[in-house]
């Protein structure tokens, strides 16, 4: 049975609302039971803890995010953050090996954060994703949230920027306060819209104030949330931004073997490898992004389902590729 000290810690953490310590103590009890040979009981405890975590997160989202308005600040926060329930796993993505290694490193450090904390080290949590449109940046944010079992909040940049001086900074501060209060993945998509270099003469006023505020907020952020910024134009970002991120992951366009893998994965039931190779479909697709290639495959499949296999040929695939290239 669980030690008296563990039971006291469990009750104390529950009373104080300290969820992290409560779950940690509960897992210690489960591990102790397993060591004593009570395998079935240990597994049952682990399953109960897992279900409790999921329920707790769901309760928070329902009561703290979806229940509006409680006050003007919470109402404003709801207008700034869009809640997404991620469904994509890392295994579902086709990625460059370097990109895959970088993502796995973020996931591994987050999953073993307790070990790093013991050695006064911090896991990667501020990530900048850069690359051409359609290469998997936004999907990566979904994957990281899914693999870590966290909700994903997409920052509504259109709601963030205000024409009134100082209002945008106040809104940005609300978002960073939310990161402190609730652990999740926060995605700033199309980040170049607020991260453009301060040396340019085209954007003055509120945009520059927002960038300065972002630099300050991300520098002092000590939350356990993950901040992900995605941009198609890293060259336009202010140089001061780069050192604020723990990792910068660059997404190249897919190379030949990645394109071949994607076509075989998506069209293997309709077109065999020999036919794809005969018409050099992968070579013809060089220069397209992962997203564009997926749309090429979707166009082909839609034509097949609507008009039938007998009325669909690989020429339809080639035509779709050429249209995307234009």
Straight-line distance between termini:
69 Å
State mean pLDDT (0 to 100 scale).
Answer: 83
Order of helices and strands: HHHHEHHEHEHHEHHEHEHHHHH
Largest sheet data: 6 strands, mixed
- Strand segment tally: 6
Output the CATH class name of the largest domain. Answer: Alpha Beta
CATH level 3 topology of the largest domain: Rossmann fold
Discrete helix count: 17
The structural class is alpha/beta
The shape is globular
Are there runs of 5+ residues with pLDDT below 50, and where?
63-70
In percent, how helical is the residue content? 55-70%
CATH superfamily of the largest domain: P-loop containing nucleotide triphosphate hydrolases
Within the largest sheet, what's the order of strands? 1-3-4-5-2-6
Strand content bin: 5-15%
As a whole number of angstroms, the C-alpha radius of gyration is 24 Å
Number of domains: 3
What CATH architecture label of the largest domain applies?
3-Layer(aba) Sandwich
Keywords:
single chain, 326 residues, alpha/beta, Rossmann fold, six-stranded mixed β-sheet, 17 helices, 6 strands, 9% strand, globular
Describe the structure.
The chain is of the alpha/beta class and 326 residues long. The chain has three domains: 4-55, no CATH class; 68-251, Rossmann fold; 256-325. The protein is 59% helix and 9% strand. It contains 17 helices and six strands. It has a six-stranded mixed sheet with strand order 1-3-4-5-2-6. Helix 4 (72-80) crosses helix 9, helix 5 (97-111) runs parallel beside helix 7 (137-148) and helix 16 runs antiparallel to helix 17. The longest helix has 27 residues, at 39-65. 27% of the residues are buried.
């Amino acid at each position: 049975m669980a030690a008296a000290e563990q039971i006291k810690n469990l009750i104390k953490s529950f009373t104080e609302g300290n969820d992290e310590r409560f779950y940690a103590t509960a897992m210690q009890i489960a591990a102790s039971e397993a060591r004593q040979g009570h395998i079935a009981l240990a597994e049952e405890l682990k399953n109960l803890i897992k279900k409790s975590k999921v329920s707790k997160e769901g309760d928070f989202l329902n009561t703290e995010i979806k229940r509006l308005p409680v006050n003007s600040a919470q109402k404003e926060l709801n207008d700034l953050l869009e809640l997404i329930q991620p469904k994509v796993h890392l295994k579902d993505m086709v990625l460059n090996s370097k990109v895959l290694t970088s993502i796995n490193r973020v996931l591994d450090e987050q999953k073993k954060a307790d070990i790093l904390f013991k050695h006064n080290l911090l896991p990667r949590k501020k990530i900048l994703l850069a690359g051409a449109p359609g290469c998997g940046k936004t999907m990566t944010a979904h994957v990281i949230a899914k693999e870590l079992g966290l909700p994903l909040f997409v920052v509504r940049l259109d709601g963030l920027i205000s024409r009134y001086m100082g209002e945008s900074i106040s809104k940005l501060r609300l978002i960073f306060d939310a990161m402190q209060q609730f652990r999740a993945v926060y995605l700033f998509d199309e980040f170049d819209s607020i991260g453009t270099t301060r040396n340019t003469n085209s954007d003055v006023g509120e945009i520059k104030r927002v960038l300065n505020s972002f630099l300050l907020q991300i520098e002092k952020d000590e939350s356990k949330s993950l901040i992900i910024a995605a941009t198609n134009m890293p060259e336009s970002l202010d140089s001061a931004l780069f050192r604020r991120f723990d990792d910068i992951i660059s997404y190249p366009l897919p190379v030949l073997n990645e394109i071949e893998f994607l076509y075989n994965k998506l069209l293997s039931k309709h077109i065999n490898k020999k036919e794809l190779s005969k018409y050099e479909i992968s070579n013809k697709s060089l220069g397209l992004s992962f997203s564009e290639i997926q749309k090429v495959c979707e166009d082909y499949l839609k034509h097949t389902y609507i008009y039938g296999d007998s009325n669909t040929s690989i020429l339809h695939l080639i035509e779709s590729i050429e249209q995307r290239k234009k």
